[in-house]
Specification:
With about 400 residues, the chain is an alpha/beta fold. It is built from 14 helices and 15 strands. It has an 11-stranded mixed beta sheet, sandwiched between helices. A two-stranded antiparallel ribbon has the order 1-2. The structure holds NADP nicotinamide-adenine-dinucleotide phosphate. NADP nicotinamide-adenine-dinucleotide phosphate binds next to loops.
């Protein structure tokens, strides 16, 4: 057993035989997790000839955990996530009923996984609803711990909602009818800036061209508007030599000289620009709700959320995840598309510095799509024979090759 360690400067050390945590997930989770583990193990073997390997550590969560322990996220599982530092998870059912919070939201808040990172790019061969899907190469950095998803809300007929309405009326003269539910949208400077910092750091480390602050600040000035202002302020004060604002660049194109352009777009405009001027956008940093919408919309442009990966990251912990849900109707049928989870594993391999294995796996997935080896979700659109989830994984493994 050997675990990743993180020092006081947040620097990670990864042993060659590393324990990584995995949560199978509910519904199609076990099928896609099995496929993911098989292809990741194979890519590591091809890349390092036995000198590196993963010890997969199962972490109980979701329905299986509830059946076995009476809890959806037992304390023991939380300890394992803490110990492993880096984990990967399949989709989890959000339990319906009062008193339950989404397990995903709980994980994000508990381990302070403040950045939800969703790369979106096109794989040649995948059916797309747009004319030039190949122009898409964006990465969404979505704030993960505040905004409307923080869950501060009260039902219209609750005591709390009544009290808030009375307070608003008494203190601020704001009158709301008795049938009004209340939700609070907290957006703070510290949390906005650490998200934008992560996006800019990523842009610098990966030679990206721009970071766009997506917001609805024209209407929600002190939350979304403040996010934009704090984003620009952070770029100006912490990255003065590596960034330039779009305004400065337009006035003086020479100001660019290899720097990253910081720009902002109002959310509705961002949606249409993503379609009409796709190639002009690169990294998008945005509060939670905008990020939720835009990441699925971008994924749809290149073939849907079945193939889009995701990661939840903080300064210490990281949980990589399939972005789609549990698709319960396909549970246990070995027909689901495991690509989202597999590409999340590619992100995970890069995160732990195992770049060679990541490249091999990414290359093999790309070749599968190019060769039109696909699962039923895409096969039915392409009018070709569908592979089972496990067969798709085998096809990926067949296409793995070491770069010279
Ligand atoms: P969903 O599970 O994503 O499924 C919706 C539809 O998307 C499926 O019926 C299927 O479409 C397609 N699909 C999704 N993933 C697929 C895959 N890997 N391969 C093939 N097809 C796939 O969304 P949902 O039905 O709204 O949610 C079901 C449960 O998942 C809920 O409990 C929800 O809370 C949970 N959920 C969890 C997460 C997470 O853990 N991150 C995220 C979202 C939802 P067709 O029917 O057209 O074939």
């Amino acid at each position: 057993m050997s675990y990743i360690t993180v020092d006081e400067n947040k620097k990670m050390t990864v042993p060659d035989r590393v324990n990584l945590g995995y949560i199978e997930g509910d519904g199609i989770g076990p099928d896609i997790t099995k496929a993911m583990i098989n292809v990741v193990n194979a890519s590591i073997e091809v890349a390092y000839n036995g000198s590196r390997s993963v010890e997969w550590e199962k972490i109980l969560a979701g329905e299986e955990a509830f059946e076995k322990t009476g809890e959806h996220l037992p304390k023991e599982s939380q300890k394992q996530i803490e110990k492993c530092i880096v984990s990967i998870k399949g989709p989890l059912t959000t339990p319906i009923g009062q008193g339950f919070r989404s397990l995903n939201v709980t994980l994000r808040q508990q381990f302070d996984l403040y950045a939800n990172i969703r790369p979106v790019r096109y794989f040649p061969g995948v059916p797309s609803p747009v004319v030039h899907p190949e122009y898409m190469d964006m990465i969404v950095f979505r704030e993960n711990t505040e905004d409307l998803y923080a869950g501060i809300e009260w039902k219209y007929d609750s005591e709390q909602a009544k009290k808030v309405r009375e307070f608003l009326s008494r203190e601020f003269g704001v009158s709301l009818s008795d049938d009004t539910g209340i939700g609070i949208k907290p957006i703070g400077k510290f949390k906005s800036q650490r998200l934008v910092r992560k996006a800019i750091q990523y842009a610098i480390a990966n030679n990206r061209k721009s970071v766009t602050l997506m917001h609805k600040g024209n209407i929600m000035k002190y939350t979304e508007g403040a996010f934009k202002e704090w984003g620009y302020e952070l770029a100006r004060t912490e990255f003065p030599d590596q960034t330039v604002t779009e305004e400065e660049y337009l006035q003086n194109p020479d100001a660019l000289s290899g720097r990253i352009i910081i720009k902002d777009r109002i959310a509705d405009n961002m949606f249409q620009q993503a379609l009409t001027r796709t190639a002009e956008y690169d990294i998008i940093a945005t509060p939670n709700l905008n990020g939720d919408y835009i990441s699925d919309a971008l994924a749809a442009q290149v073939g849907g959320i079945g193939i889009a990966p995701g990661a939840n990251m903080g300064d210490v912990y990281a949980v990589f995840e399939a972005v789609h849900g549990t698709a319960p109707k396909y549970a246990g049928m070995d027909v689901a598309n495991p690509t989202s989870l597999i590409l999340s594993a590619v992100m995970m391999l890069r995160h732990i510095g195992w770049k060679e294995a990541a490249d091999i796996l990414d290359g093999a997935v790309t070749l599968c799509y190019k060769d039109q080896k696909v699962t039923q979700d895409l096969a039915r659109i392409m009018n070709i024979k569908a592979l089972k989830c496990s067969e798709f994984a085998e096809e990926i493994i067949k296409r793995m090759k070491k770069e010279d």
